[in-house]
Amino acid sequence: MSRIFEALQRSESERVAFSFPEPPELANELLQEVEAQVAPEETTIKVPLTKPQAAEWEKEPAPACSLELGEFPRRHLQLPADTRLVSLTDREGLAAEKFRFLGVRLRQMQRTRRLKKLLITSTLPEEGKSLVSANLTITLARRKQQRVLLIEGDLRRPVHAVQFGLGRAAGLSEWLQSGSNQVSNIYCLEEAGIWLMPAGSPPENPLELMQSGRLAGLLELLVPRFDWVIIDSPPVLPLADTSVWSRMSDGLLLVVREGRSEKRQIQRGLAAIDSSRLLGVVVNSCSDTHHEDYYARYSPTAPDARQPDRSQQDRGQQDQEPAKKELQ
After folding, report:
1. Which tens digit of pLDDT belongs to each residue from 99-111?
2. pTM, two decimal places
3. For 105-112, which contacts have Cβ atoms below 8 Å and span 24 or more sequence positions?
4. Structural domain includes residue 202
5. Residue 171 belongs to what domain range?
6. CATH classification of the domain holding 244
């Protein structure tokens, strides 16, 4: 089972020059997941919801796909067989629970500061930023039916269209090149309760396209209509795309991966981003597994904790027998 642990909330007063003496200064816990690189030709399946989950979907009203901007097309999810969208497929697991905890932390921060456009990036490719972006978006949308939009800002290596089963859907790249002022290429994914603007087809000049000025205009139109706008940006190293997104965001989460991200690379990545926007670091693919057994006892599907384990009862009675004999 995938294991995902908390992201560290760093306060304004704690933002000082980065020295990286020990990992605990970057994160309280570690997130464990590997970013799924899904090929378009892989077998797809519908969202595998259990009966309790399906009943919960029926109780929850579907998000309205019509906003002030207009009507967005509805798309049904066709998830890859090896999907890692645990916030949909394993909502009672430890991984989904840790994403919920991360969502709570972010909502707490939203009460004390301006935080709606959240940028998620990494130091290098394949550290799990797209995985974190997708699962966090789904998690935030479960709270009081909030409207949450996921924008795939990585125009170079798009993955979300395939990850959510949209195929080769047009996205941000096509809109930026179209010259149209009408917002389009956003899809309402009712089963997930989110909106998605995929990257679309990779352009020849992604950085120039992003610096054209149309990107800022798009966010001005979208942000007032949503409670959260999650932006999955390219890695910080060695690209400059993230700096464009960073200037437009309210806060930033940096995803690093244990066993892959080197100390010097993380230092370079942190030096390349605006520290005033850095909310915390999410460390992925952790080898620490001591939370699994603890969570299994308190998950919704765990046996009734009020019923004591018979073996423990027997051991307890055996332990008491010598004491009784002594009293006699």
Report:
1. 999 999 999 999 9
2. 0.72
3. 105/6, 105/7, 105/9, 106/140, 106/279, 107/140, 107/143, 108/9, 109/9, 109/251, 109/279
4. yes
5. 12-300
6. 3.40.50.300
